[in-house]
Amino acid sequence: xxxxxxxxxxxxxxxxxxxKEVDEDLFRYIRDFAYExxxxxxxxxxxxxxxxxxxxxxxxxxxxxxxxxLEGALRVxxxxxxxRETILQSALFLGFPQALAAMKLFHKVLKGRDSAxxxxx
Length: 121
What we know:
It contains seven helices and no strands.
């Protein structure tokens, strides 16, 4: 399984199409360098890399990309608690407004996952 498949899951096709629509060359840079070279390096597991990506995207104020990596972190094995703690930790260094916005987005991501995968009861 490629790194992109692991992080993007069933949304891979839609994400790739969206990126290609912006620019084919930029898509290839993102695919080949970011995902298949940097994120595939040894030394850190993919879960840790996704938690770091979450922190960086909070700092950048990139909600669309942040939502992708919030979902990606959960897909590659991060628990809801680990993602939540990552967001809380970011408040210390990045500010409370950024952390608050990220936490709201995380709750939306979780609601979307719950509606897509209803729990047995």
